[in-house]
Amino acid sequence: MIDQRHGTGVWFVPSEGPELATEQDAVDLVGATYGHGVDVLVVPVERFPARFFDMHTKLIGHFFSKIVQYGFRLVLLGDVREHVEASTAFRDVVRESNRGRNVWFVADLAELDARLAAAR
């Protein structure tokens, strides 16, 4: 679903569907929205397999880089506390990402709206 939130075109990736993890998955997401006025891709964390959050696999870095390379912002929507508690490296990724503008981890839509409003 494509929505306008705080003057920003946002695409909410459906929570149901195949898991996402690879650079090609990121390219496919970008392709699905290209030309529709979308700036932000919001992906439910349930779409990512557990291995995606394992920093040793490097999946997360490649996925994030591909989205940003195409000029989009990425939001992972949902609870990642389990992964944060399990990995100092992942905790650092979440903290640093949320300090920036291109990739955010948000728990819910209220947090997303607050971040988008502040980014205007």
Helix content: 40-55%
* Helix-strand makeup class: alpha/beta
| Largest sheet: number of strands, sense, barrel closure | 5 strands, mixed
Give me the oligomer status: single chain
* Radius of gyration, in angstroms, nearest whole number: 13 Å
Which strand order do you get reading across the main beta sheet?
1-2-3-4-5
Beta-strand segment tally? 5
One letter per element, helices H and strands E, the order comes to: EEHEHEHHEH
Overall geometric form:
globular
| Uncertain regions spanning at least 5 consecutive residues | none
- How many helical stretches? 5
Mean pLDDT: 95
Cα end-to-end separation = 22 Å
Beta-strand residue fraction: 15-25%
What keywords describe this structure?
single chain, 120 residues, alpha/beta, five-stranded mixed β-sheet, 5 helices, 5 strands
Characterise the protein shown here.
With 120 residues, the chain is an alpha/beta fold. The protein has 5 helices and 5 strands, in the order ββαβαβααβα. The chain has a 5-stranded mixed β-sheet with strand order 1-2-3-4-5, with helices on both faces. The model has no long low-confidence stretch (mean pLDDT 95).
In brief, what are we looking at here?
The protein has 120 residues and is α/β, with parallel strands linked by helices. The chain has 5 helices and 5 strands.
How do the helices and strands line up, and which of them pair or pack?
Elements lengths: L1 E4 L2 E5 L10 H11 L6 E5 L14 H11 L3 E5 L3 H6 L1 H12 L3 E4 L2 H11 L1
Parallel strand pairs: 2-3, 3-4, 4-5
Antiparallel strand pairs: 1-2
Helix pairs in contact: 1-2
